[in-house]
Amino acid sequence: MAVGILAWGYTLLLPSFAMAGLLDPGILAHGPFGLAILRPQALFGLNLPPLVHGVLWSLTLNLIAYVVFSLAARRLDRAPAGRPFVRPISRRWRRASACAARP
């Protein structure tokens, strides 16, 4: 969710702030750090209407993050699966406890 919110903010909210004069309007024309490929309204050269552009990048990045984190979590879940959660009780301990239980 955070990845999508950040993409949404970058492609839709940041241009609104730049147009309102709260940020440098040059970021819309030249991109951050002068990198035209990172222009918020034409990210990676994709020229679409603003809302379509924001939704497309938000959903795409959300999907990528979902797949990456799901695969990472799957690996983490499988690691302890091969090991038993409770060690089997040794025979020596069972005999000792059985003898102690007899009157």
Structure characterization notes:
With 103 residues, the protein is mostly helical. Helices cover 61% and strands 0% of the residues. The chain contains four helices and no strands. The N and C termini lie far apart (63 Å).
Could you say which structural class the secondary elements and strand pairing correspond to?
A: mainly alpha
The main sheet comes to: none
Number of helices: 4
Binned strand content: under 5%
* CA-CA gap between termini: 63 Å
Number of domains: 1
Which stretches of 5+ consecutive residues score pLDDT under 50?
A: none
Q: Which term fits the overall shape?
A: elongated
Mean pLDDT: 80
Number of strands: 0
Quick structural overview:
Helix content is 61%, strand content 0%. With 103 residues, the protein is mainly α.
Set out the fold topology.
Blueprint: H1 2-19, H2 26-30, H3 50-78, H4 91-101
Helix pairs in contact: 1-3
Brief descriptors of the model:
elongated; mainly alpha; single chain; 4 helices
